[in-house]
Amino acid sequence: MSYGQTGYTTPNTYPLTVTSMTSCFRYTDKDQNECERQLYSNYFFEQINLFGQKVGYYVHNYDTLSADNLYGEHPTQQYSPPRDLIIGINLNENALMLSKYGLLADDEVTAFVHISAFYLVFGPGAEPKAGDVFQMSEYGRDRVGGRAGNYFEITQRLDQDIAQINPLAGHYVWLIKAKRFEYSFEPGLSGESVNQQVYDDTLSTAVTGLSGATKTYPYDVNTEYTTRVFDYTQTNNYDDAYGGY
């Protein structure tokens, strides 16, 4: 085609010239698609409530002013009483791994929490955060043998994942990732039901208070050590497996 034909009268002229960047309608124009984004927000809210699970959500009350920031610890921190919250759940159960310390239950959860629904429960501006814990209370309600719902600790919170939660580039839900919670006597929480931990001593004082409670199994590391490994009472009149100081 020669430059003398229609549309190519000069060598440096583009024949399909655009005269304005806003001449076309954009589906993702947030000044124009508020109604459509509201529809998506309602859609997420409805789907979570129709197919989601009710959980008991525990807020982790870490206080930077009271914590030892050198070690990143807050020994006196505790969890707030649980509040009911409905979340969408993708649960990867029975992710067991064998290590030299025993079996590790690395169950994982991907959850969807509607932002407005979280505000309704915890107040405007509140956000899920790493360290918060939720129990699958409704899912585990009718388990047999006294079992109950498992606990999960939040490890990550996202508000942007364009492939899953941001149609029309809107922000409607929190995408939460969590792992099976390993209970270690945190104030405000209890261990999973019918999941007895092994204690060195005969009594479990950390759970029941100073009075203690007899364990459900008779084994005692101190007793086993003094009677079968090295009996201090026969040598130096020590009654402690670790000797006297």
Helix residue percentage: 10-25%
Order of helices and strands: HEEEEEHEEEHH
The number of helical runs is 4
Order of strands, widest sheet? 1-2-5-8-7-6
A few lines on this structure:
16% of the residues lie in helices and 20% in strands. The chain has 245 residues and is an alpha+beta fold.
Structure in words:
It is a single chain. The chain has 245 residues and is an alpha+beta fold. The chain has two domains: 34-191, no CATH class; 196-245, no CATH class. The protein has four helices and eight strands, in the order H-E-E-E-E-E-H-E-E-E-H-H. The longest helix is centred in the first third of the chain and has 18 residues, at 34-51. It is elongated, with a radius of gyration of 29 Å. The relative contact order is 0.12.
Q: Notable features of this structure?
A:
alpha+beta; 6-stranded antiparallel beta barrel; 16% helix; elongated
Please give the structural blueprint.
Elements (H helix, E strand, L loop, with lengths): L33 H18 L1 E6 L24 E10 L3 E4 L2 E4 L2 E7 H8 L10 E3 L15 E8 L14 E8 L24 H4 L12 H9 L16
Antiparallel strand pairs: 1-2, 1-6, 2-5, 3-4, 5-8, 6-7, 7-8
